[in-house]
Each structure stands twice: as structure tokens, then as C-alpha cells.
Pirin
Amino acid sequence: MSSSILKRIPLQMFWPTFDPFLFCAFHNDVYPKANNLMGPDAPLNKRPLGQDFDGIDGWRMYHGKSIPGFPAHPHRGFETVTVVNKGFVDHADSIGAAGRYGEGDTQWMTAGSGVQHSEMFPLLNEEDVNPLELFQIWLNLPSKNKMVPPYFAMLWNEDTPVVKALDNKGLETQVKVVAGGLQNAEPSPCPPNSWAADSNNDVAIWLIDLPEKGEWTLPAAAAGLSRTLYFFEGEKVTLDEESASINEAFVLKSDSALALRNQGKKARFLLLQGRPIGEHVEQHGPFVMNTRAELQQAFHDYQRTQFGGWPWPRHDQVHDKSKGRFAEHGGGNV
């Protein structure tokens, strides 16, 4: 095995992650054309609605019953980073914020002391299929920031840098830099209390598109980081001359460079990197704390306050079909 590759792990829908990351889900659905209510124009009676994760006919309703997605649910103690490559997400939350984002946008939400939010996938095309491709990444918060106020930032596609690198054959690799600088590219700021907000933590979230027959070298970073490369689309790739299979994760030595060479059609990778927080984690469902007592307090607080309640008419809140991409941060600030 290459000296840069420490471990190989097969991928399923929920991907293995390492401190400071908690979770990564890859949603890849090709929805049929939409009905006039932004749901799929297809029968739903044979699906396990409310818990539809089987991928029947190449798409899932998840926890949605008429529109796919995740109706209102709580979080405390960590952050969600939702990177949408295709399709759209409608956001609504318990602090009154709302938005529609997608087609290359990223939403970065600090749950902090507690928030409810919904993440629905409105289908807007009534003439053709509605593909959805997104990553949802959970990034832990250190104990000192577990109870900060909730906050979300939009990293719009137009403001997200893409580094372009030519190999010796003139083929161009593109690296979309959601977090963590690469060369002279610096992404939009993440929320201020994020583990990623301190550059000393070397958090990086990169999407790497390697063209057919293309080559690119992932540069070395600092020692002692968690660094994982996920190969999620393509055919035949080598990493430091070692053959790589699609739908594999590669745990990397962070202070070594890694040569990527593509022998097949375009290959795509996600890179997650960061300095471990190194604190004990206690997690139960949507709450991530440091002790069992803090978890119990989280459940008690949610039962008592509902983290501010739900100010929207629907738990599967979607916005007007005619709206474009937007973010309302509460108080009418759009």
C-alpha cells in the first residue's frame, strides 16, 4: 500500500468520518418530473413514507411524505455543512431564518445551543427529471462552543473559489474550495464559532474533478490531521500508483502529497481534512455533546423549549415555487 494511504474503506450511503468530522451523507437521487406541489409526479403508495431510504427507482423521499427531504428536527452541539452540487434545498428554522439554495451553493449552519430546522428538496421542473446531488457533513464543535447561539452562513456558488490546474498534457483539474485555502484561493467565511474558523485547525472541504486521462497532485498539509479522500464518481484511478476503486474512502497521511492519475472518464472526489478536536464525544441522534449529563440536558431543554418553537405553517416547509435562490437570516435581512 502507498505510504500516503493509511487505510481503505468501502463506501455506502453514510460515509466514515474522523475527528473533527462526525458524519457525511451522500444524497444522489434522480427524481422524476415534478407535480404542481413540488413533489414527484409519481405514485408514492408503495414507498415506506416517513422512512424512505431504499432508493426505489433511483430516488428516495427520506422523511418527507409528499415532498422529499427532512421535515423539522432539532440539533445541538455541532455544525451541518450542506454542499449541493445539483438540485435545490429549502431551509426553514426555529429562529425564523429561511432560504433556497443549490446548484453549487453551500449552507453552513452552527446548531450551537439548539435549533430546529427543515431541509426539503423542492422539485421545480415539471417537464423533465429533477436530479439532486449533495453532501451533508457534520463538523463537531469544541466544548467551549457547544452552547453558542445558532448561526448560519451561505457560501454561494458564485463566491466559492475553484482552483484550476493544468497537467503536463494540458488537461485541467478543478478543485472547488468550500473550506480551507488552496494556493491563492480563499473561500467565503464560515460561521465565527466554527472549528474551521481558526486557520490553525487546517479544516478543508474540497471537491476535486479530475478530467479523463488527467493527473493532479494533492499537496501535503500539516502533520497530525485527519485527512480522508472519498472517490464517488469515475472508473479507473490510481493514487500513488495504487489502483483505487469507486465508492472507496482513503484515509491519508496528512503531511504527504498524493498523486492522482485518471485512466477512465471524469473522476470526482471529496476531501475532508481537519485537526482533531480530541475531546470525548457523546452523541444520541441529533445531539452531540461531551458527557451523558449534557446529552440528558439537551433532551430536557428541547422538550421544555422546542429550541424556540416552529414559526412556519408546515413542518416540511417549502417556499414559493417562483422563488429563486435566497437566504433570509431573520428580521427580514435577505
